[in-house]
Design brief:
By secondary structure, this protein is an alpha/beta fold. The protein contains 18 helices and 16 strands. 30% of the residues are buried.
């Protein structure tokens, strides 16, 4: 329900406007002068202010100026029985949404309030979109541990070059973030970075995804398609989970890297491309080569520079920074003040076996923010971290060791584990 603040020194006008607006299903609050208006505005959020000009203590014009500093996105509709063109122009110049003469035409007032609320909604949507755009930019690599410092140093050295990079590491460690930072610090930063998740694309479609296809190349090819190599022309192509790419596609990628040319599926024309390749994998490509699932010549083309991203368990000293970062970002997304976390709770998080790495840590922090009260405590870490991992059998042993003294908690976990076993 939209909330409106009526600011007028005349009680009869406030009562009349309140009756009308409450009949229209608005929530209404009142203030008798500009000073009271500012106090209420600091304590509450209003969708629209309807404010008189002539008032004691602080008139509407002075209050309007202060409102623009205190809450610039809150639309203010000015009303006055001493209306003239100059006053209306001055009010609008100072930031008023509209100016209405007393006694106000009720239809016009209601329409103006609806329009003001529409503007307020647009401002909020714009702010959300701007936040999403800013978040889509490359995030910082959080941490000061030795492995992370080495990665940052390597990025600084490698990014300005055209060298191909192979980023390795377990799922959830942040391989994509490393790739995006290499692109961001490269001369190609103004051009696109195009990502291809090789594990998510069926083998029969991967060549069309990478190189594109001509109309009629196969049954469902009803029009020409531009592939990822062409989309990334001049920029960077990030081949995520390269270890899951089939041998046929590997051969064509190798040719593209050797000749800087591609041919669309079903086409004959060679197309020159200028892309920098960054690949990532959670597999040991040497073992994949021995098993005959990955081409050795492609490996040597990709692995000019190898960056190994450490597991979170190997950089536990970075967990406090990561947790603080996630708390700030998640609370900002939810529109709530950042929650505090107790020191022993932070130490508890550092002792968890993070098989899901940073992705798992972020999910746990979000869970704690939602389910905890004002401060995240050790007891809440014990309850909610365990609760989130009862379906992961591999995590149970270290967690049992960590909290074996908590009899009630162990009983709860055992119950959940038995339920999990029955499902298998």
């Amino acid at each position: 329900m939209a909330k409106i603040l009526i600011v007028d020194d005349e009680k009869s006008i406030r009562n009349t406007l309140r009756d009308i607006l409450e009949f229209e299903k608005y929530e209404v609050d009142e203030a008798s002068d500009g000073m009271e208006c500012l106090v209420k505005l600091k304590q509450n959020k209003y969708d629209v202010l309807v404010m008189d000009i002539k008032m004691p203590k602080m008139d509407g014009m002075e209050a309007l100026e202060r409102i623009q500093l205190l809450s610039p996105d809150t639309p203010v509709v000015m009303i006055s029985g001493h209306a003239n063109i100059d006053t209306a122009v001055e009010a609008v110049k100072k930031g008023a949404f509209d100016f209405i003469s007393k006694p106000p035409d009720l239809n016009r007032l209601l329409i103006t309030i609806r329009n003001a609320m529409d503007k307020s909604s647009l401002i909020s949507e714009t702010r959300v979109l701007k936040k999403k755009v800013s978040q889509s930019k490359v995030q910082q690599i959080i941490g000061d541990s030795d492995p992370i410092d080495k990665i940052k140093e390597t990025i600084e050295l490698v990014a300005p070059t055209e060298a191909r990079v192979l980023v390795t590491g377990s799922n959830g460690t942040g391989k994509e973030l490393v790739a995006r930072w290499i692109h961001e610090k490269s001369p190609r930063a103004s051009q696109p970075i195009v990502e291809v998740n090789c594990a998510a694309i069926p083998a029969e479609l991967i060549e069309s995804e990478l190189f594109g296809h001509e109309k009629g190349a196969f049954t469902s090819a009803i029009k020409q398609r531009i592939g990822k190599f062409e989309q990334a022309n001049g920029g960077t192509l990030f081949l995520d989970e390269i270890g899951d790419m089939g041998l046929s596609a590997q051969a064509k990628v190798l040719r593209a890297l050797q000749e800087n040319k591609i041919t669309r599926v079903g086409g004959e024309k060679e197309i020159s491309v200028n892309v920098r390749i960054i690949a990532a994998t959670n597999k040991d490509l040497r073992k994949e080569i021995e098993a005959g699932r990955f081409r050795e010549d492609l490996y040597h083309r990709l692995a000019v520079i190898i960056i190994q991203v450490p597991a979170l368990n190997d950089r536990r000293e970075d967990i406090p920074q990561l947790v603080s970062h996630f708390i700030e970002r998640i609370c900002e997304d939810y529109g709530v003040p950042p929650k505090k976390i107790a020191a022993d709770a932070m130490r508890g998080l550092q002792e968890v076996n993070w098989t899901g790495n940073i992705r798992e840590l972020r999910n746990v922090v979000e869970r704690l923010i939602i389910l905890s009260k004002q401060e995240i405590t050790l007891d809440e870490v014990k309850r909610f971290v365990l609760a989130g991992n009862v379906e992961e059998e591999a995590n149970l042993s270290p967690l049992f060791d960590r909290f074996e003294q908590e009899a009630d908690l162990l009983d709860y976990v055992r119950t959940q584990f038995r339920a999990y076993q029955k499902k298998q």
